[in-house]
Amino acid sequence: MRTNRNTKSILWIAPLTVVFFCFGLLLMAQFNTAQAKRQALENESSANLAMIIKGVTSNKEELTAQLAALKDELKESEALIASGKSLNNAVVNRILTLSAVTGDRQVTGPGITVTITGESNLMYYDLIDLINELFASGAEAIAINETRFTTHTSITEKAVRKTAYDGAGNLISEAGYVPLINGKEVLYPIVIKAIGSPATLETGLTYPGGIIESLNSLYMVYPVIKQMDNLLIPAAPEYIYKYAQAPATGNADSGN
Predict the structure, then answer these.
(1) Which pLDDT score is estimated for 211?
(2) Which residue has the higher pLDDT, 126 or 6?
């Protein structure tokens, strides 16, 4: 029995909608990161800004190439739909790729580790700055103590009482703060994994006047960076959307 061509086309609208919805989430994540970097850039020196501009230009060229590739894929998909051919392989491969980028799948690849020991006076916003710098330097996936960082990850802090012995051997207690990831305390040593170009990621953290130099000189925090040939970053827990939904075919609201 022959299947109507229009019916075949409709069957592939749903998976295509999922693909482009995931891509939209990626664009939102990059926009939020860019907003967070704006204020920090205002305080950079001319030399550092020149280095950053060079990196941003390179990143823009890569994104332009990716956009062109996506447009080509869209044209191919439309051509396949028009001819009534199966989109199964193309859609499945694209969904797998986007799932890896958004954190739904574990990923492997070269990159760096950044280790911070318990002696460090690390604050939660230092952790945020490190993550932002890594993404700005081209990190494609990041995990903190094996927790995948995604657009839904929260980094905050809570007040605690810390105990220690003074020089005379007396036990003393003082107020302090510990960072939280998704509401859970981050235990030391804190190990950040980032997949990307190892040399580029390390340079993005260690250039003169950069975040590592600031942590060293201002806050006595000394992260240890290691370039790695292969890292494994786990998948993130499934996120359940409460409000955001992909619009039904033909019922998309323009927002007006």
Answers:
(1) 92
(2) 126
Mean predicted confidence (pLDDT) in 195-213:
93
| 202 lies in some domain | yes
- pLDDT, one tens digit per residue, over 2-32 is 444 444 445 555 555 655 665 665 555 555 5
Contact criterion met (CB below 8 Å) for 120 and 220: yes
Beta bridge partners of 43: none
pLDDT averaged over the chain? Answer: 77
Q: How far apart are CA 11 and CA 86, in angstroms?
A: 10
Residue 191 contacts residue 115 (beta carbons within 8 Å): yes
Residue with tokens 């005379």: 168
- Beta strand pairing status for 184-185 and 155-165? unpaired
Strands 190-195 and 224-233: what pairing?
Answer: unpaired
Which structural domain, as residue segments, surrounds residue 228?
A: 107-233
Q: Which domain CATH number covers 202?
A: 3.30.70.1880
Both 39 and 53 in one domain: the answer is: yes
CA nearest to 190, candidates 114, 134, 119: 114
Instruction: Tell me the three state secondary structure of residue 184.
Output: strand
**Burial label, 55 (beta-carbon count in 10 A; 0-12, 13-18, 19+):** middle
Q: Is the pTM of this model over 0.70?
A: no
